[in-house]
Design brief:
mainly alpha, 62% helix, 0% strand, elongated
């Protein structure tokens, strides 16, 4: 591969006279480090002849960075830091804790704003506000000023009214929600496909009435598990449904797809003084971490086996690992352990709802209602 000025210019999409340090650095990182190191002397001369010489500190930093990559001593962070020291590469994680998506994961908004920030930094270099040579030498004061310029730009409204950091985060959130909705729709379709081939159990009316009566009392109690079930079902600000079926299904569905977070921030802080999660927050965090595929595998297997099947966290993890309804790789012991730990937050709530008994055995109520609750959780309103 010929790493010459033509290659760098084509890679950057700029004529030689307009190339920046960032352009050169990115082009050098796009080829094997050994090739890049060998190419530096000639490339340096070509840039000089083109009237666009780079400084000695830049070339020294380039050789040091590429040598570190070639020897295997450089970390990803070292390479990113060198790229940022060119003076026009946006900082991946700012002091204000804004994080740019990876290059291949940026949407149109992030791509546009990223390039706008690069142009803004180029202007600051041209004006002398950013000194790339000081950045290349590791000057802490220059680095602080460099980060401050970016933080300020990210949090200041553009002429079109957009605040860059907010616009990027909004686009990322929209993408995550869209991906989540797509995954949920697929899981719902698979759930309905499996259930269509199974007999539909009769509703155990007496068990449902007893469970709903206990649930009404439990939801009035502070702390765990009442607060968790209220948050899961989204019942904090609403009167309880009069229908026992509606109330029970709302709570059971909420366990699989929590509707809200704990509302009393003074009583339920996410971290306590020892840095550990409280019982309510720990339960909610686990519930929100369980994937659609894991719920699908667990509930469909319980529906197939019927009342009397053991539904401990360990057994649920095994159902997920051996499921024919999902494509999941859980060959490692730690994968099973992680799934067990997550469902350890589910089983106590299922017991309070009467889905399983005190020995974690699936009840007729659980057999009847659990598939319905999961379908409800995944059905768009």
């Amino acid at each position: 591969m010929s790493v010459d000025l033509d290659f760098v210019s084509e890679y950057a999409g700029r004529p030689p006279a307009a190339l920046t340090r960032r352009d050169v650095a990115r082009a050098l990182l796009a080829v094997p480090s050994g090739h890049a190191l060998v190419a530096i002397p000639d490339l340096r001369l070509e840039l000089l002849a083109a009237g666009n010489p780079m400084s000695v500190p830049f070339w020294d930093s380039a050789k040091a960075a590429l040598a570190g990559i070639e020897s295997g001593a450089a970390t990803v962070g070292d390479v990113q830091r060198w790229l940022e020291s060119t003076g026009t590469e946006p900082v991946l994680i700012t002091r204000g804790y804004f994080v740019w998506p990876e290059e291949g994961e940026r949407g149109p908004v992030a791509d546009d704003l990223y390039e706008r920030l690069v142009s803004h930094l180029e202007e600051r270099v041209a004006s002398g506000e950013i000194d790339p040579d000081r950045l290349a030498s590791g000057d802490a004061e220059a680095r602080e000023a460099y980060e401050e310029i970016q933080d300020r730009w990210l949090t200041t409204a553009l002429p079109d009214g957009r605040v860059p950091s907010v616009a990027v985060d909004d686009e990322l959130s929209e993408g995550l929600f869209a991906s989540w909705d797509e995954e949920e729709a697929f899981a719902l379709a698979e759930l309905r496909r499996v259930l269509a081939d199974l007999p539909e159990p009769d509703c155990p009316a007496a068990e449902l009435a007893d469970a709903a009566a206990r649930l009404r009392l439990l939801l009035r109690e502070p702390g765990y598990p009442g607060a968790v079930l209220r948050a899961c079902a989204g019942l904090d600000d609403a009167p309880l449904p009069e229908s026992d079926t509606e109330l029970w299904l709302a709570a059971a569905a909420g366990v699989a797809a929590p509707v809200a977070d704990l509302q009393d921030e003074d009583e339920h802080r996410f971290w306590n003084i020892s840095g550990e999660l409280g019982p309510e927050d720990a339960a909610l965090a686990s519930l929100c971490t369980i994937h659609h595929a894991d719920w699908l595998a667990a509930v469909t297997e319980l529906a197939r086996r019927g009342p009397g099947v053991l539904a401990t966290p360990e057994r649920i993890a095994r159902f997920v690992a051996e499921s024919e309804d999902i494509d999941v790789d859980m060959d490692q012991p730690e994968d099973l352990e992680a799934t067990e730990e997550l469902f350890s937050a589910v089983i106590p709530l299922w017991e309070r709802l009467g889905i399983v008994d005190t020995k974690a055995i699936l009840t007729p109520l659980g057999w009847w209602g659990l598939p319905k609750a999961l379908e409800r959780a995944w059905t768009p309103e």
